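Onboarding guide, step 5: your first structure request.
Type a short instruction followed by the sequence, for example:

Predict the 3D structure of this protein.
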Amino acid sequence: EVQLVESGGGLVQAGGSLRLSCAASGLPLNDYALGWFRQAPGKEREGVSCIGSADGSQYYADSAKGRFTISIDNTKTTVDLQMNNLKPEDTAVYYCALATRPGSVMFYGSRWTGFDSWGRGTQVTVSS
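The system replies with structure tokens like these:
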């Protein structure tokens, strides 16, 4: 059974930094992708960043480029999201997600498909 557990959320002032971590277990033996999504109150869930386990290839939403960095550890079971220069509009619940078939991941603007397991989320609040 796949389990994804997020940590590292909290309250930070605008311009500050946070590092989110996702501990994954029950991962498939084949290649997979791990990603971060977020959902702000009253808004749809949107993709933030994702990384492939096979070659570490990364993808970022436009809102994350230049400020956020995704990484995966050597065991390929923990994926981190370093968030710098945070803005109030980054306030959301951040979710870790797994795509067991990376080839099925598709990016339609902020709507990313192909992710089939989700964590419970961690709250990030950025004050102005």
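Each response can be followed by summary notes, for example: The chain has a mean pLDDT of 96.
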